[in-house]
Amino acid sequence: MAVNLFYFLVFPGLLFAATVGAFLSWFDRKITARVQFRKGPPLLQPFYDFFKLLLVKETILPKHGSPVIFLLAPILAVFGATVAGVFILLPLFNITTGFKGDLMVIFYLLTIPSFSYIIGSLASGNPLAAVGGSREMKLILSYELTFLLVVAGAIMKCGQQFDLYSIIQTQQEGSPFIGSISGVLLFIVGIFCIQAKLALVPFDMPEAEAEITAGIYIEYSGAAYALIKLAKYIMLFILPAFLIALLMNGFNLKGLGILWAVLKIVVVVLLLTLIRNTNPRIRIKQAVNFFLVWMNLLAVIAIVLIAFGY
Length: 310
Description:
single chain, mainly alpha, 13 helices, about 0% strand
């Protein structure tokens, strides 16, 4: 019991994932600033933002809505992101505590933060938040099938193994799945799915600050909004880590392998940052068509290539 609590609360769970995610958030903001010819924030700015919201800013409850559900939604988001992070990071750190079929559990756990934001936005009673929640729901329906196809492709390449540890070990004993044509296609699809899961441009329509003034988060402030930031920090780390586990050989934490593991995480986050800084926001209808038609098509082509050994 004590070991499980340590995994959840300290390493590789809440404390570790949130800290790494905060540094990745700084990296994302720094690259964004450089692209826009700005200096960017200091290294510890994400921590300043989080603790200022948590300890200084007032939490204002919406007048119309359900305060209990409104406050529980960010807690649920952090819980879902943390549990998903534990299941993803334990195999990556070569800790064999997973179980057969943990991939399906991870897949569903990764949806909890998004559904939490929808619940919180609807509980706020704000019409703009409801618009953001509606957009988030449509976005989930569009990319979740595509993301499932990416996971299915990794399972097929691994010889029908449904646990993340086996997928990582298969790649480390052979070669990374991304070294094949089908692996490259799955990686491209996976990157765009992560972009949508993180609600980054061009898939940031649920918050769309210029249109619906932060949408699903419009009523959040203080400690409640700090928890939302915390969930986002964790997701910014565990989603790239999940993609690396599925297609890029996982982590080899021996010698220079540690540097290579860090580099892989940084490169994936860099790709996400460059995509969001070189594309305009698209409409929700365009996002749905993009995933349901083009990304699903790429994923299906990748699965067909896997079936033929490519």
